[in-house]
């Protein structure tokens, strides 16, 4: 008999996506099914979600007033997922980014929008929705964090609970004066509750009250217990270290499969990587780069932010060019970074290609066509882009932090000699460190035997959800006593 788990997330691929959280929430249910775990995913009823569910849904529960308006809990299937959605037009009937208004600022009622997600999850978890049985509630990131507070301050029964940190940099902070309106008692606004520097933190609710805390790589689980990387939560995490663990993310091997990928012109696998040359030329053409099969083509698929270390890359571009390199960039972020890459493209025509925004097809083409994928992050909970690079034969060049350190085997001399190397790591995360990594990459690129050996070692690495799902299923069963 399958274990019954409620996954609570603010975005789920392919229905709604702004980042890696959606990929994880979308891929885990299928991977866990192989471990006899049945996952139902609760998410907000954004327009894209409601469209995907269509008219044939079942209304399981109603609220006369869910933070300012009537709402329904509906059930249905879409994209192979068993879904529960909160149909609350006053909170979620907004096109575009699920967190930001069209002017780029947070929706002013985000506290109530994601409190509604948490409240609904807690009610489902406590058995208040007829026909829905839950043994474990698994809440993802700050948007679902208040689930754990509502369970803690609510009535029994309470299911086992897991809270996964996808990025500590986003604490989900809101004014302390909202506590009563969120339906939480006064004692919640203390250091033993959800208080965080005199504000409410949805992230802290998850960290404080979940039965188990996970994050998306073992190294990041250790890093966030330090003042440098704990974002002010390191003391709490050290106190709860016995319930904290790191479980590496995976990727969907069906969505990311170079042998069957319809986004790329030439498909291939590890037995014959020669078609990558055609994809490289297609990528160069797509982004206006000089058609040069011998150029060392670096790729970037990323948010453009300080966290991602892309200011270091902008400064290192002269080094990259001196090494005979080209650069293909796909991403969006702050105006400073977007302007910086636009200017670099203008200054180095034919050597730097940039597309701002996100394009799923171009993301696949970059992975299939670039020689090396750059991920110079200052911190990285796990990262998915380097896992896709391994799958597609693009050599990852990564900072030695978080999940990047856990997933890439550095091309040191012994790793190259044994055939174990899958990429290039660098530390510290400084301009000098990145420039040295670029030079190492160029040196190995010139040795075709070593380079092809790294590609094939990377492509043979298991980057799927198989092992992580097995570990997570054991955690669920431990919580459920199953």
Automatic annotation (TrEMBL):
Keyword Oxidoreductase found: no
Molecular function per GO: alpha-1,4-glucan glucosyltransferase (ADP-glucose donor) activity; alpha-1,4-glucan glucosyltransferase (UDP-glucose donor) activity
InterPro entries: Glyco_trans_1 (IPR001296), GS/SS (IPR011835), Starch_synth_cat_dom (IPR013534)
Domain Glycosyl transferase family intervals: 293-412
Domain Starch synthase catalytic, chain residue ranges per copy: 4-238
Gene3D superfamilies for the chain: Glycogen Phosphorylase B
Record: residues binding ADP-alpha-D-glucose: 17
This protein's GO CC annotations: cytosol
Catalytic activity: [(1->4)-alpha-D-glucosyl](n) + ADP-alpha-D-glucose = [(1->4)-alpha-D-glucosyl](n+1) + ADP + H(+)
Annotated keywords: Glycogen biosynthesis, Glycosyltransferase, Transferase
GO biological-process terms attached to the record: glycogen biosynthetic process
Enzyme Commission number(s): 2.4.1.21
Pathway, per record: Glycan biosynthesis; glycogen biosynthesis
Domain of life: Bacteria
Function: Synthesizes alpha-1,4-glucan chains using ADP-glucose.
NCBIfam families: glgA, PRK00654.1-2
Family label: Belongs to the glycosyltransferase 1 family. Bacterial/plant glycogen synthase subfamily.
UniProt protein name: Glycogen synthase
Biological source species: Lichenifustis flavocetrariae
Protein encoded by which gene: glgA
């Amino acid at each position: 008999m399958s274990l019954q788990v409620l996954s609570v997330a603010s975005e789920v691929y392919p229905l709604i996506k702004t980042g890696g959280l959606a990929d994880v929430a979308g891929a885990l249910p299928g991977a866990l099914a192989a471990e006899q775990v049945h996952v139902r995913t609760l998410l907000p009823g954004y327009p894209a979600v409601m469209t995907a569910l269509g008219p044939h849904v079942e209304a399981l529960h109603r609220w006369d007033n869910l933070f300012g308006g009537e709402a329904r809990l509906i059930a249905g299937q879409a994209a192979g997922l068993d879904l529960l959605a909160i149909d609350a037009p006053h909170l979620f009937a907004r096109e575009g980014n699920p967190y930001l208004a069209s002017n780029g600022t947070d929706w002013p009622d985000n506290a109530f929008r994601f409190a509604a997600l948490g409240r609904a999850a807690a009610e489902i978890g406590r058995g208040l929705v007829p026909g829905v049985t839950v043994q474990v509630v698994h809440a993802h990131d700050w948007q679902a964090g208040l689930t754990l507070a509502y369970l803690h301050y609510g009535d029994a029964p309470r299911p086992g609970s897991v809270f996964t940190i996808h990025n500590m940099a986003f604490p989900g902070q809101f004014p302390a004066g909202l506590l009563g309106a969120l339906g939480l008692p006064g004692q919640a606004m203390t250091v033993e509750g959800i208080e965080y520097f005199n504000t409410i933190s949805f992230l802290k609710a998850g960290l404080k009250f979940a039965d188990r805390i996970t994050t998306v790589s073992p190294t990041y689980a250790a890093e966030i217990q330090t003042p440098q990387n704990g974002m002010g939560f390191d003391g709490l995490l050290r106190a709860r270290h016995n319930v904290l663990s790191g479980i590496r993310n995976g990727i969907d091997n069906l969505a990311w499969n170079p042998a069957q990928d319809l986004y790329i012109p030439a498909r291939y696998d590890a037995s014959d990587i020669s078609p990558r040359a055609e994809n490289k030329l297609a990528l160069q053409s797509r982004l206006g780069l000089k058609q040069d099969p011998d150029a060392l083509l670096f790729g970037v698929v990323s948010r453009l932010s300080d966290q991602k270390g892309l200011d270091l890359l902008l400064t290192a571009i002269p080094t990259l060019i001196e090494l005979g390199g080209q650069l293909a960039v796909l991403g969006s972020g702050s105006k400073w970074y977007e302007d910086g890459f636009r200017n670099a493209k203008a200054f180095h025509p034919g050597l730097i290609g940039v597309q701002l925004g996100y394009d799923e097809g171009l993301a696949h083409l970059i992975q299939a066509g670039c020689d090396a994928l750059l991920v110079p992050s200052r911190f990285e909970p796990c990262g998915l882009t380097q896992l896709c690079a391994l799958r597609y034969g693009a050599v990852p060049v990564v900072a030695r932090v978080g999940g990047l350190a856990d997933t890439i085997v550095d091309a040191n001399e012994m790793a190259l000699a044994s055939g174990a190397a899958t990429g290039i790591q660098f530390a510290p995360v400084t301009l000098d460190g990145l420039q040295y990594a670029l030079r190492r990459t160029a040196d190995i690129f010139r040795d075709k035997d070593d380079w092809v050996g790294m590609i094939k070692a990377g492509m043979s690495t298991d980057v799927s959800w198989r092992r992580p799902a097995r570990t997570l299923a054991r955690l669920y069963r431990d919580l459920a006593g199953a």
